[in-house]
């Protein structure tokens, strides 16, 4: 951007006036460089010099603001346009509507949609798609239906993107039959389903544990001449692992490699997660070696899965060694990482070590959540240290963390084991008073 602005300075020094195309190019350059604030300052300087900008200029600024998550500023700029002698167009409105929907303000976006129509600016497929997506994410199906009807009456045809949005929403809501219907509609109106369409349906079937149908969708995709991408395979591998069909997951993983797809850490994690849950650690080690060989370092998700498997198998020394490696490699262990290790240590009778880690987290001001407290309370109760567990419960509440049913179950179970029914009953009354629900 610096050399570009040097050329602008040269234009002024030579006594020329830059054209709107020149100014728009600079505005676009600033916006795509994530320098939207500088773009707005540049805009103000140009207006102060008496230079005029056009709809393309403001469309660029509005788009830049929305991409930076500054949708409110984009709305204000859109409102200013009439005073700047620029008429807002469908692209500007659609951009702001899309930004509002992405921020979760679908109702406000719909208000802008109505305003747009009142001004004689007619929405297009992009406008409708953004609004439909916004309402789908909020499960406001009535509004979605109204928009689809309005779209149909306005003579605007849905495209694959609109239909993919609907499919994705139905799948995430567990409404796979409606998703199938939309998929069929794509083909019925002579639109070719793309890879994303198939991936949505694969994910939908996997969500309801119907991996057989998900596999059929993958085969259908290949038969139609489409090349499955890395997400197609990753989704289905996770589905197989979830349903404990590891041999099929491994076969699919090998097929993915044979098709020369560029694998990433997420691809490996999809299989590693299933293998860890099944206790097939030797296979996991092979995959970790392969990842390192390919220059794909395992991330904290990979290590968390392996740590959980080791703790579950009570291979605590190896779990501790792995945790030390995570810290040594500066992988930034999460609260979940610490909770896995503390739970494994408590279960394996190493309460002293879990207590050391928990105290370290408190002293260092690290994030300690309800699960962390629950793990320690359960571990203390297991060792018969009820008073210490009760003190930890009080400390938890003092720190503004609300106990859940698992917190109380650990203590109540311990009291019942010790035949201290009266104390258990008092704690049950506390559960009712704090509105903790049993699940």
Provide structural commentary.
Among the domains are: 1-84; 369-439, no CATH class. The mean pLDDT is 90. The chain is globular, with a radius of gyration of 29 Å. Helix content is 73%, strand content 0%. It is mainly α and 439 residues long. It contains 25 helices and no strands. PPR repeats lie at residues 19-53, 54-88, 89-123, 124-158, 159-193, 194-228, 229-263, 264-298, 299-333, 334-368, 369-403. Pfam families: PPR_2. This is Pentatricopeptide repeat-containing protein. Belongs to the PPR family. P subfamily.
Distance between the termini: 58 Å
How many distinct beta strands? 0
**CA-based gyration radius:** 29 Å
Count of alpha/pi helices:
25
Portion in beta strands: under 5%
Percent helix? over 70%
Shape: globular
**Biggest beta-sheet profile:** none
Category by helix and strand content: mainly alpha
- Averaged pLDDT, please? 90
H/E element order:
HHHHHHHHHHHHHHHHHHHHHHHHH
Give start-end ranges of low-pLDDT stretches: none
SSE layout and pairing:
Layout: H1 2-13, H2 20-32, H3 36-48, H4 55-67, H5 71-80, H6 90-102, H7 106-118, H8 125-137, H9 141-153, H10 160-172, H11 176-188, H12 195-207, H13 211-223, H14 230-242, H15 246-258, H16 265-277, H17 281-293, H18 300-312, H19 316-328, H20 335-347, H21 351-363, H22 370-382, H23 386-398, H24 405-417, H25 421-433
Keywords: Repeat
Family: Belongs to the PPR family. P subfamily.
Protein name: Pentatricopeptide repeat-containing protein
């Amino acid at each position: 951007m610096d050399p570009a602005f040097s050329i602008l300075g040269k234009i002024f020094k030579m006594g020329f006036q830059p054209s709107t195309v020149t100014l728009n190019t600079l505005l676009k350059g600033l916006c795509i460089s994530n320098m939207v604030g500088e773009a707005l300052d540049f805009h103000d300087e140009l207006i102060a010099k008496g230079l005029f900008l056009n709809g393309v200029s403001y469309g660029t600024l509005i788009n830049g603001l929305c991409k930076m998550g500054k949708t409110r500023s984009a709305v204000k700029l859109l409102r200013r346009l009439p005073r700047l002698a620029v008429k807002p167009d469908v692209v500007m409105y659609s951009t702001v509507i899309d930004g509002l929907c992405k921020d979760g303000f679908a109702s406000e976006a719909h208000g802008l949609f109505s305003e747009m129509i009142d001004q004689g600016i007619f929405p297009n497929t992009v406008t409708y798609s953004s609004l439909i997506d916004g309402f789908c994410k909020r499960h406001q199906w009535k509004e979605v239906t109204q928009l689809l009807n309005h779209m149909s009456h306005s003579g605007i045809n849905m495209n694959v993107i609109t239909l993919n949005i609907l499919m994705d929403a139905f799948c995430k809501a567990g409404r796979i039959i409606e998703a199938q219907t939309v998929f069929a509609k794509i083909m019925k109106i002579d639109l070719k389903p793309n890879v994303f369409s198939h991936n949505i349906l694969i994910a939908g079937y996997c969500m309801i544990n119907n991996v057989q149908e998900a596999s059929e969708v993958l085969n259908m995709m290949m038969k139609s001449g489409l090349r499955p991408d890395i997400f197609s395979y990753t989704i289905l591998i996770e589905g197989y692992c979830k349903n404990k069909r590891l041999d099929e997951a491994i076969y699919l993983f090998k097929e993915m490699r044979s098709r020369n797809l560029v694998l990433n850490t997420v691809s490996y994690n999809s299989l590693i997660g299933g293998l860890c849950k099944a206790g097939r650690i030797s296979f996991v080690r092979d995959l970790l070696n392969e990842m390192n060989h390919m220059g794909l370092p395992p991330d904290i998700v990979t290590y968390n899965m392996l740590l959980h498997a080791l703790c579950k198998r009570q291979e605590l020394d190896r779990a501790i060694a792995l945790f030390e490696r995570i810290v040594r490699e500066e992988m930034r262990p999460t609260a979940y990482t610490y909770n896995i290790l503390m739970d494994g240590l408590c279960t394996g009778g190493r309460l002293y070590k879990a207590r050391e880690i928990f105290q370290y987290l408190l002293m260092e001001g690290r994030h300690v959540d309800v699960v962390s407290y629950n793990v320690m309370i359960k571990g203390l109760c297991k060792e018969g240290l009820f008073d210490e567990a009760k003190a930890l419960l009080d400390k938890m509440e003092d720190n503004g963390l609300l106990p859940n049913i698992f917190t109380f179950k650990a203590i109540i179970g311990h009291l019942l084991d010790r035949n201290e029914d009266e104390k258990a009953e008092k704690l049950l009354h506390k559960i009712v008073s704090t509105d903790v629900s049993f699940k």
